[in-house]
Specification:
50% helix
Length: 98
């Protein structure tokens, strides 16, 4: 799986790390939705650490789509919330809902 860290690099991780990344990403999302800056910063730190420790940096000359995009290490809670709103606003509506 490919994980992009915003403002940084892309990392290639073995799929065996998917459950760990999902769990850490969920913790960051819960903290973000709760507006808990300290919990968000801690969860993001753990998520970034897992990606960096278990992934291999993809060189800039290799272009691959990302399976996951996560905030960069210096992104604040309010910046992450604003970025998520931008992404959500640009996504096409679900074709299954009418």
């Amino acid at each position: 799986m490919i994980v992009r860290v915003m403002g940084e690099d892309q990392y290639r991780l073995d799929d065996s790390y998917r459950a760990q990344i999902e769990r850490l990403d969920e913790a960051a999302e819960v903290a973000m939705n709760a507006g808990d800056e300290a919990a968000f910063a801690g969860a993001l730190h753990e998520l970034l650490q897992a990606v960096r420790q278990n992934g291999q940096v993809i060189t800039v000359d290799e272009i691959v789509p990302s399976d996951w995009i996560i905030p960069g290490p210096d992104m604040t809670l309010s910046e992450a919330q604003a970025r998520l709103q931008q992404v959500t606003a640009t996504e096409p509506p679900d074709a299954t809902t009418k």
